[in-house]
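To close the section, here is one more complete example, presented without commentary so you can practise reading it yourself. The ligand is adenosine-5'-diphosphate.
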Amino acid sequence: MLALRILITEDDNVSALLLKKALEKNNHEIVGVAATGEEALNFLDDSEVDLVMMDINLGGDLDGIKTTEIINEKYDIPVVYLTASSDEDTLQKIAGTNPSAYVIKPFNIRELNMMIELAIFKDKKEKELQKLNNELEEKVKQRTADLNEANKELKKALEKEREIGELKSRIVQNVSHGFKTPLTSILSSAQLLQIYAEKDHPFRQKIAKHSKKIENSVRSLNNLLTSVLFFGKADANKIDYKPARFFTTPFFNELLDVVKANNDNEVTITTDFVNVPKSIKSDAELLYQVFENLLSNALKYSKKNGHVDFKVEMKENTLFIEIKDDGIGIPKKEQDQLFDRFFRAKNVGITEGSGLGLSIVKKCMDVMHGEIEVESDSGKGSTFNLKIPLG
Ligand code: ADP
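Output:
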């Protein structure tokens, strides 16, 4: 067993002597014998001690329990109590000071040794535990600091991403608007050229052909920009349903004029308006986007001299629309992506497009709480059925 430097605190000389002998027999060194608590504390101030044997009932101001409390606080040295009584009251008081062990007098040497070993073992374990605890606390502190740092970085990155997103949409909006004005003037110049070419110019056929080309390119660029602008707004959640009463005849006339202006395939459009009142209350801009995109597609994906039916019926304050073509159709297995941005079916061939039109249609239909269904297959034409509540 380990040889320890032990301080005995005992006011009874005979008991102190017996204890000293017993401990020395076990190779421990008795570094001092104190008769009072104060003496013991003075001793600990000046000497190195591994263990204190402490009588509970000491004379003087400090009894064994109070002295132990001070030792625990100031010196962190294990204490083994010596007590003559094992009554409940005393044991309770002893437990309150968390002693390393206690020995009830009279003791035998074996018992004494066991208690000392227990005290040293307990003290060692407590110190290890304390060390672990400290390390753990340090780790927790470090991890918390790391986490806070990571959190700060994440916040910064998110803020940057938000700023970049805003900047991107502002650039898209500005550039698109900037494009639109010159495009409009190019378009009207091309149209004027066509009118002049109708007169007696020797190259009038060539002028007409090229101005038509310019017009078509400008129109498709213009459509693309309109789509980009629309998504800029949609992504910023700025597409709202703004219903207002408007006249249906000028609305549909303008729509059909614009759509027919792009009718390269010379497709016939048959319209059928059933119970459509003179004026309706809805969001004319959203309705226009929906019809314009669907009708343009119907013409664009038709074969030469094909046929498109455009039917609008009003029932119970709801518009029922059918747009039917006998064109190239949409392959069944690709139809689940039909309303995704940039989707283009494999059978489009050289027909130009951005893959944005139908996703705009879908967004507008959602905003208007409408429904849209497609019946189509490759080579079998397409029919789009819509249901749009009004008001
Ligand atoms: P795009 O600019 O390519 O026409 P859309 O979003 O309007 O983009 O349409 C997406 C795709 O859906 C088209 O590329 C085409 O493959 C298919 N599609 C849409 N309408 C029709 C139609 N009426 N007939 C055949 N295919 C169509």
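Once you have examined the tokens, check your reading against these statements. Residues 109-197 form the longest helix (89 residues). The two ends are 96 Å apart (CA to CA).
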